[in-house]
Write a structure and sequence with these properties.
The protein has about 290 residues and is of the alpha/beta class. The protein has helices at about 90-95, 125-135, 150-160, 185-200, 215-220, 250-255; strands at about 10-15, 25-30, 45-55, 60, 70, 75-80, 100-105, 105, 120, 135-145, 170-175, 210-215, 230-235, 240-245, 270-280, 290. It contains 6 helices and 16 strands. Strands 6-7-10-11-12-13-15-16 form an 8-stranded mixed barrel. β14 (about 240-245), α6 and β15 form a beta-alpha-beta unit.
Length: about 290
């Protein structure tokens, strides 16, 4: 919520969306502008209201409750790579972001490794170390340049090698959204690449899946063949830029309209949704992709 200059503290109220009783949830200091509520049920949506409290002498005066904001149960995250530069992960965590999907490798201009066209992303080690140290949960993604089953298998092996010594909480995503593969005649071949990569990753006990645009997944992958794998789909809101967490009310409305209320942006089940590529988050000097699950 937005800082209220007259506030000496805040009281946060909570009700089940559509209910009529506001329950006092917590009293917060005047410097606190967001709150994580973990006492929630994922099949319900909640409404929160904030009231400023002024303290004069030994008496407290509570102002009117703000207009309710729909609370959405889930996790706010970001997708990052070396394109986002040096990241201050402590600031990212303080903003309320709780997980990051980190690019593990990129196209190697002077050649790749392990028989692939890929080399480790120049910020991968710093990003996964910094995010983990700041308390964020992490997953990774790999943009594919594979054409054959053997290519996809080698890309999977490369990821496993780069992950040595690191712990991850979220899936390892195979990012397949190349324009050259956006052809319905390549639907079966694309699906085969995803299955080969995910099969190799699964051998090592990791959760895995596919990362692409909702349009690509709908048209150029056979999702019936990808049951059991996680899907990170991108379909961006038309809102030009989203400051996180300052625009959390607008973000929650976007999520409530799309991902949370029946995955209205796609014809398949999504594990995680990328709803903006122009997010603004403290600690990151560039626009950043915003995700939710």
């Amino acid at each position: 919520w937005t800082k209220m200059e007259s506030a000496d503290k805040y009281i946060l109220y909570k009700s089940v969306k559509g209910g009529y009783i506001d329950k006092e949830l917590v009293t917060l200091s005047k410097s606190t502008l967001y709150y994580d509520d973990y006492d929630v049920n994922k099949i319900k949506a909640y409404e929160y209201k904030i009231a400023s409290v002024s303290v004069i002498g030994d008496k407290s005066y509570e102002g009117n409750k703000s207009v309710g904001v729909t609370g959405v149960v889930g996790n706010y995250g970001i997708v990052v790579s070396s394109d986002n530069g040096i990241i201050n992960w402590d600031m990212v965590a303080s903003a309320g972001i709780n997980h990051a999907i980190i690019c593990v490798a990129n196209y190697g201009e002077s050649g790749g490794e392990n028989g692939t066209k890929l080399k480790k992303d120049s910020r991968f080690d710093a990003n996964i170390t910094g995010a983990t140290k700041a308390g964020l949960k992490v997953g990774i993604y790999l943009p594919t340049y594979a054409h054959t089953k053997d290519d996809a298998k080698k890309e999977g092996e490369l990821v496993i090698d780069y992950l040595k010594g690191y712990k991850i909480d979220y899936p390892i995503y195979y990012s397949i959204q190349n324009k050259s593969k956006a052809n319905k005649s390549k639907r079966d071949a694309n699906t085969m690449l995803v299955k080969e990569f995910c099969s190799k990753i699964s051998e090592y006990g990791y959760t895995t899946g596919v990362y692409s645009t909702a349009e690509f997944i709908d048209n150029y992958l056979d999702t019936r063949e990808l049951k059991g794998y996680s899907i990170l789909a991108s379909k961006h809101s038309r809102v030009r830029k989203l400051n996180f967490p300052e625009k959390i009310s607008k973000i929650n409305r976007i999520i409530d309209k799309g991902f949370y209320s029946g995955n209205n942006y796609s014809s398949f089940d999504i594990y995680e949704w990328e709803y903006s590529k122009k997010g603004i988050v403290s600690g990151i000097g560039t626009n950043v992709k915003l995700i939710y699950n």
